[in-house]
């Protein structure tokens, strides 16, 4: 008995789920990523269902984990509802997405940490990390010699051949005209049905960033810092409309997530932000100026962030996520 039969004999269900409207579009997105299979009613034939099942069971991980799930079910009887939940969790975790054979670009890759995560998730994909900093590219190549990295300006970069996925983490908040860059990437860098996946901190109005700008107004360094603050991100409607303009994208998902990071105190917040939000304010200053800026900034943070019962402060950190799938009407 193979693992699929074993799991089925223990009650692991095969569940056909009717999908409508947004559910179907989301399922098609998962299908593109090879994490699910969406079939039209006319496609529900023995041949196509057999092919779909064979694609799944060819993954060795499925066999290993199906046996684990079967043993778990045998050890602890579950209701039908519990079995559905357990099975869908299992399917989401151990689907065949690791076998995805596509081209991926990590735009603004820095030292390659996110590129390595993409490789861990999709080891069969062709993945390239791109960053404008020669120093970052050197570090990325040193830390991850098995991966490909190249230097390029994110605001103007285009690949030689169109790709399936462009991933950009905490990059585009630094690029003022990034709405136009998004359109250019979708039009000229992605394959039809390719995906642009973006995350940006949306913390312009958070105390951390309001206080940065407030400290920058100090007369000691105002002349050097008056134009250093980045601009606030556009509103969600602007992103949505821009990405759907002229049928550029067939589907756009946008959402916010707010993270709360427990840190040891205001000094820990400063250390957190030194490599990101504080850089435009610190880089133009000499060592004495940087020290004085940080001292004044830390004093203001101390008043803004009340300690919790364990002595830590909670750093509120909103992020915006955007996933746009290119329409197949826009062939390169």
UniProtKB/TrEMBL annotation:
Reaction(s) this enzyme catalyzes, per UniProt: glucuronate acceptor + UDP-alpha-D-glucuronate = acceptor beta-D-glucuronoside + UDP + H(+)
EC number: 2.4.1.17
Taxonomic superkingdom: Eukaryota
Keyword Glycosyltransferase set for record: yes
Residue span, Methyltransferase domain: 101-222
Keyword Metal-binding: no
InterPro entries: Methyltranfer_dom (IPR025714), SAM-dependent_MTases_sf (IPR029063), Trans_acon_MeTrfase_C (IPR023149), UDP-glycosyltransferase (IPR050271), UDP_glucos_trans (IPR002213)
Gene Ontology molecular function terms on file: glucuronosyltransferase activity; trans-aconitate 2-methyltransferase activity
This protein's UniProt keywords: Glycosyltransferase, Transferase
Pfam families, per database record: Methyltransf_31, UDPGT
NCBIfam families, sorted: PRK01683.1
Family from the record: Belongs to the UDP-glycosyltransferase family.
Name of the protein in its database record: glucuronosyltransferase
